[in-house]
Amino acid sequence: MPKHIAVIMDGNGRWAQKRHLPRSIGHAKGLSSVQKIIQYAHEFNIKCLTLYAFSTENSGRPKSEIKDLTSLFDKTITNESNKILDNNIKLNILGDISFFPKSLQIKISNLIDKTSQNNGLTLNIALNYGGRTEITQSVNRVLKKKKILKITEKDIQNNLDTKNLPDVDLLIRTGGERRLSNFLIWQLAYAELFFENSFWPDFKKCIFINALYFYQSRNRRFGKLNN
Q1: Domain assignment of residue 110, given as a range
Q2: CATH number of the domain enclosing 25
Q3: How far apart are CA 193 and CA 191, in angstroms?
Q4: Does 10 qualify as catalytic in the annotation?
Q5: Which of 10, 68, 161, 169 is catalytic?
Q6: Which of 12, 58, 92, 128 is flagged as catalytic?
Q7: Is 58 a catalytic residue?
Q8: Is there a domain that residue 90 lies in?
Q9: I want to staple 50 with a disulfide (CB 3.0 to 4.6 A). Which of 6, 37, 77, 223 is the partner?
Q10: Is residue 193 part of a domain?
Q11: What are 70-124's pLDDT values in tens digits?
């Protein structure tokens, strides 16, 4: 079984547009799929789950959509906090949340603190996250910590947002697109890539299981030969 699954939750807006609904309805509907995949990860004993909720590029979307997404994030933190605590989930945030209102930043930070000692599923939410930005920031952190002539892979690894987590084993992307979209570029180096045509609001348990079967069918050699 994969230890770390990452998910690009794509297709909320297109799901809504296909039904002649506002994009905000699609984002709200996609939240139910977030709840489902957390449940599936718990059921199948996945240790780490990372969800791509808002990219650095998403900040260029219309202000009305960003406002709707911010409101949805705020409501979700408020409504799901107790469930996260009760289920022994440890919450981490990848990315720069200073983009969001101070009130939301405080709610997020408080929940991270409250779950810091939990040892069940590690749930990473990528908010205002970009893979290139993360790597750049990691290099700058190394340079700030010590004056060195050479930066190693280990230096960068130890200064990423995911520094204490295993690399991604399996990436799931919904919505029919076949690209990484600046998501966990470093951590996905040897991930198996599972692309699903269904939009994120239509995500079901059978899709999750198919992704697991796909992962188990792969011959993971990591550049080496079979024994």
Answers
A1: 4-130+170-217
A2: 3.40.1180.10
A3: 6
A4: yes
A5: 10
A6: 58
A7: yes
A8: yes
A9: 6
A10: yes
A11: 999 999 999 999 999 999 999 999 999 999 999 999 999 999 999 999 999 999 9
